Amino acid sequence: MLLSFVYVPILLSYLGVTNYGIWMTIMTIINWINYFDIGIGNGLRNLLTSFIVQNKFKEAKIAVSTAYVALSLISFLFLIIGSVAIILIDTKNVFNSVEPLKLVLFISFFFICINFIFSLSKTELYSLHQAEKTSYILILTQCINLVGIFSLSLFGNGSILAISILTGFSTAISYIIFSMEIWRKKKYLAPNFHLYQAKMLKAICNLGVEFFIIQIAVLVLYSSDNFIIIKLFGPDAVTPYTTTYNAFGIVNGLFGAMIAPLWSRFTVAFVRKDFIWMKKTLNKLNLSLIPIILVLLCGVLFFKPLSVIWLHKTLFFDKGLIPMMGIYYFLMIWGSIYSTFLNGIGKIKLQLYLAVFGALINIPLSIFFGKYCEMRTTGVLLATIICMVISNVPLTIQAINYLRKNSSN
């Protein structure tokens, strides 16, 4: 996060407000491919955790190998489809810009397809209860990005193409390094393409398909805002929105670092029927919301003057955007507590229905509040907040009722 604080203003200075907004939108759209794994990543996470805790290492190796083969085929398919789509689309219309962006999209899409496969290393780390090492991957990536953007800023300005190459390369090399290290230490997690089994893929996807539908719905709910903003209000409006989003996201990132291991820990507790531990853990997480509220409130009060110091320039923020962002991240953190618990124990039906419903109403609500109510980016964010409230309340009730029933038994 500290590296990001240094990186963002240098990147913004290098690209300028307009190109920065375009690049953030490109990254949002390109990263959508990470959600199209048919739920293999999350399905593998629960299954692999169960195998490891039961010392079924042969089954674990088959599961990992099957997942890598399946993701490699999906990635190759997406590379072909994406390349054709990039050739056919009118980038000037899509991104509301005269910048030539096809080569940028090709390079970004190529790297994201490679990273799509090697991102399974994070699933392996979660299953080993080594969630902290997924952050090491991000740190290495950000270090390479920081050195790269600093070097680029010495020799020129404004090249989105150079940034696309730098970003793709840094992520790919980080994933490959950590994947090799995992496979060296845990031989049973190294994929062997000859061990692919269709029945194992079915076992992964039994729960994985539901995760996949949730992922797609979440994609529409959380990742469409930049695209809506750039279409309705132009790329300049994306920059203050994403800057606020990234700054407040620090709180979510810190909480995410704390909660990341718990998905797999909940899976282990579920296998062992340790409902008392689950209940105590959720109570502790709920108490952590109190300091989070105070931190977000401070962020709302002091963000504007701090942003000038941070970015070395003054940005125009739509009225109400900053306090709305504080509410947004509180709801996200609250929701992540109960979704992590329910994901870990595999109770995701209700979450699936709520996610799909939220995805269906989010874009129309965003256009209504943003355009017709003239709330601009604040209205787009308000639409997402409404969808989050609709989801968070039922999921919280479901989790509490589940634990009350099972811990009493």
UniProtKB/TrEMBL annotation:
Cellular component annotations (GO), alphabetically ordered: plasma membrane
Keyword Cell membrane part of the UniProt annotation: yes
Record's bilayer topology term: Multi-pass membrane protein
Keyword Cell membrane appears in the UniProt entry: yes
Key words of the record: Cell membrane, Membrane, Transmembrane, Transmembrane helix
Cross-referenced InterPro entries: Poly_Biosynth_Transport, Polysacc_synth
Main location: membrane
Membrane-crossing segments per the record: 20-41, 62-89, 101-121, 133-154, 160-183, 204-224, 244-264, 285-306, 326-345, 352-369, 381-403
Protein known as: Polysaccharide biosynthesis protein
Organism: Liquorilactobacillus hordei DSM 19519
